[in-house]
Amino acid sequence: LGVGGVLLAACNKAAAPSATTAEPSSVAPPSADVALLERALASEVSIGLLYEQELMSPTIDPPTRARLESFRAHHRDHADAFRRALVLAGRPAAEVSPSPGPEMSSGHDPLPALSAAEDQLAKAHLVAAGRLSTGELAQAIAGVCGVEARHAAVLRSLAGEAAIPSPFLDRQ
Amino acid sequence: MRLAQAQKEDAAVLSAAIEREYEAAFFYRSVLGGSALGPSAALVQTIASDHDAHRAFLADVVSDAGIAVPAAKETYPLPLGLRDDAAVVRAAIDAEEAGLQAGLRDVSVLILPQHREGVAAIVAVQAQHVSLLRLTQGLDPVPRAFLADGLS
User: Fold this and answer.
1) Which of A86, A170, A172, B123 has the fewest CB atoms within 10 Å, i.e. the most exposed one?
2) Burial of A62 (0-12, 13-18, 19+ CB in 10 A)
3) Domain spanning B3-66+78-148: CATH superfamily
4) Per-residue pLDDT tens for B73-91?
């Protein structure tokens, strides 16, 4: 089924109207789950743009460039999964407009910025795993969180830093 | 559901996770005490320490719920053919992957948010273990976009 399917199924279930709803509303407010998924989607789009920007750096060697392109593709897959889940929940995501990234000098090392962004994203998904209302959704986003954590560890390793600075993601 | 009941149900799930941590600890203790490990020894030592921390965390949660923490067995089955560094790393990759897939299932059944988040924080680090172990073998460290699709 994959995380996209799990997200789709779980989000659809979570968004179904309650049997105790008294009055239908023409514009229902987003559920807490939908709000969390929208935030997760925006974060995936933002980090994808950061990768685009960092991949323009001339200092990246070919093996590292291939690695970064692979990670960027994972973020596209994550964004697609969140987008599909939102569509099925009846809340198609508006085009997100992430804020522009900082100006980079041509000689800067892209790895620290990317590993910090991956770390931040992994922790945001971790918090969402605790807040989403169903076990299926929590499991699905935990599966995405783990991949961001892997990206962060690999990037730290490539930068010569301690790859796993703590036994728990939230303390890294 | 009352909080106490939720804590007890979660404690049952987390007790099974502690059993898995005992098994992992036994594996890592065995290989660290043997002679097969070479260049991966430092990484394996780090991973073993991480598992000790996971076990202690889970034991605290179970204990706080008023449930007895399960005791470790004296021995656990070990993979066959742990004759050199690469064989140990392959076995470690398999062990980490099995552990984290079980952890992901736990996230889906745990009731209390803090328990889901705590286990997810462990699962993420196990996923990092797999990536670093794969790097030592020259393998793609993150070949898939979703943990649920498998890690290798």
Assistant:
1) A170
2) exposed
3) Ferritin, core subunit, four-helix bundle (1.20.1260.10)
4) 999 999 999 999 999 999 9
